[in-house]
Amino acid sequence: MEFVNMWRLKLAMIIILGWLTLTLACNFPIRGGQVSGLSGEQLRQTLAAHSTATAQGTPGTIPFLAETMTATSVIEATSPSTSILAPSGAWNGPDDDDATAFHYYTQPGDTLQALEGRFEVEAVQIISERPLSESGFLMPGQFLIITNLLEEAPRFPRHVLPDSELIDSPSAVGFDVTAFVQEAGGYLSEYWETVDGERLSGAEIVRRVALESSVNPRFLLALLEYRSGWVYGQPTDRHSESYPIGFDVPGWDGLYKELVITATHLNMAYYGWRAGTITEMKYTDGSRTRMNPELNAGSATVQHLLAKLYDPQPWEEALYGEDNFPAFYQAMFGDPWNRAAGVEPLFPSGLAQPELELPFQPGERWSLTGGPHESWKTGSPRGALDLAPVTGEAECAVSKAWVTASAPGLVVRSARNAVVVDLDGDSYEETGWTVLYYHIADKERVAEGTWVALNDRIGHPSCEGGNVTGTHVHVARKFNGEWIAADGPLPFVMSGWQAVAYEKNYLGELRKGGQTAVASPVGPSTSIVTR
Description:
Low-confidence stretches: 1-96
Shape: globular
Largest sheet: 9 strands, antiparallel
Strand content: 15-25%
Helix content: 25-40%
Number of domains: 2
Radius of gyration: 24 Å
Structural class: alpha+beta
Number of strands: 22
Distance between the termini: 55 Å
């Protein structure tokens, strides 16, 4: 009991200190181009001078960092080990020499299943003073003792970026990609590319990938500059012109496709870590390293993504060496942990899905043609459902039926056959609950800026907007920029029908009381749902 009481007292002190940190931290977004007292022009001149990285090479340096702080102090200063937002891997609990168990404090977004995967244990090997939810989120800051069954001690516990800097979260509200790129004045500000028949500027490409994949535009810009110098300078060779990030996938050259690959790897790692299904990283030389199970999702994602670009030694230099990427990131955009203090945790305690209705009028019959599958094609979790009207129309016709609003809100995006409705009505896709409706036909699609009430018309389901085989609407949810899995801690429920995922994508069902609708692309009677 003395041991328990001592750690209760320590945990209380940690929570109080964390609360004070949040209270005193500046909550205002840091304006692009002004970091560490440097003007946009000074920063441009400094970063333009640094040596750019090759596809295999060592990342460039930022000369002024040596004058202001060492790389080590940057990381330690911006990865607070006492913050409940980013508990450090250095927290080893009562006995630092205890190799038989991890002493871990739960982080926002943790689930029992995720911890089982990351620590390679069963639930009975996770000890807590309080009961742990078997299916929901765990309470942040809860002290756990987890049996250590890992064959080798995990390395690289230091946190490098908060979760909110990896996804298009409230941290990105007010960040103007176009203004930042133009002020930087590098190659990206002059770049353009034709994407899906549309001529887009470099800034428009960054913003499009950020919005559609829900990844943070700051991270995309920082990685682009770190790898090729596109933001503040010029590419040094033809290779970095064609493959500015350096994934080198044949036929996938150019900025747009390189950023799509980046977003895909980022989302796969982020949501895989959230779920406990991704636990190791594979370097470019084929070697593998188990990731430290105590990392936050943002740091795990950065580690996993950069392993796709570096061999082990350059990777370690890129993250923890003298010229590391986290320090580079801070030089471009200011202290990310300070921003995180104003917006995290991204999943507040007690979070629940708002009431949603099926996206069609009461009395209509629609078919569940797709069970839980990727919310968006770039590596997102299995958060989407496909529904098709039962009208007897041609296979890929623009249906006469209407997709309707599942809840009232503001249409914050209506483009490229996607409609996003912001349920809190603050006009930001990055905050609160949003609902995505996809494959909405161009004809009669609701306009951006429209306020829709429950059951108001969104548009017609169709095959437009992707390589699909039949008319339907694809529906998915986000909260604070995070894609939400359909069958998880926040289950997808519409008109009382709850989504249940099967092992494979597109398979699954909806359940309501004693009723079940089983997903099928051909629309048999067993797949019918009604309001």
